[in-house]
Amino acid sequence: MARRTAIRPMVTPRGTAGAGHPYVIRKHRRNDPDRLVPRDYDPSERRHVELREQR
Hints:
Rubrerythrin, domain 2, mainly beta, three-stranded antiparallel β-sheet, two-stranded antiparallel ribbon
């Protein structure tokens, strides 16, 4: 049987620049219980922006 809650759920962070190029990442729930704030390139803004995890 499949587990009810996955250990590595899909997370969709949004860029803080406002345009919001969508990203999809997986995070390990036990190793990273806090919200992730990675930096990545946003093609609509043409610069690197912080990505805030949404819940």
